[in-house]
Amino acid sequence: MKIHAAAVACAPRCRDDLAKLPTFKHYIYFLFAPTLVYRDEYPRTKKIRWGFVLFHFLEVAAIIFYNSFLWERFILPYWSDYGKEPKVEAGTVVRGMFACVLPGVISFLCGFYCLLHAWHNAFAEMLTFGDRLFYEVTF
């Protein structure tokens, strides 16, 4: 998706001989910045708050640990012996599915929070990406 956004933003420049094309440095910054809209320049902060970065990376580690706990404690016990028995009953499968619904939903929510909040905020701070309200529309 990011490659497409960069291509769409830079395509009109390819037709114009006088337009300056972005450098590889701009493209790499765009790949790691938490945005889907390509620009040559983004607002930048003055300094990196390393405590903020550390906090979000600790959040990532805690969420990974919590997800592994959820899977090992609540999801894998129901499915670890699946397929070892010669005959599988429908009731066993349905019971396992219903038992795993809540831990599965919590696992997905934690995963989305981990990636879309903690990981992106940590990288935004390390890249001094200053505009955290980039997509907000003001009237």
Automatic annotation (TrEMBL):
Keyword tags: Acyltransferase, Endoplasmic reticulum, Membrane, Transferase, Transmembrane, Transmembrane helix
Family the entry assigns: Belongs to the membrane-bound acyltransferase family. Sterol o-acyltransferase subfamily.
The organism's place on the tree of life at top rank: Eukaryota
TM segment ranges: 48-69, 96-116
Membrane topology, from the record: Multi-pass membrane protein
GO CC terms: endoplasmic reticulum membrane
GO molecular function: O-acyltransferase activity
Pfam families for this protein: MBOAT (PF03062)
Protein name listed in UniProt: Sterol O-acyltransferase 1
Compartments where found: Endoplasmic reticulum membrane
Biological processes per GO annotation: cholesterol metabolic process
InterPro entries cross-referenced by the UniProt entry: MBOAT_fam (IPR004299), Oat_ACAT_DAG_ARE (IPR014371)
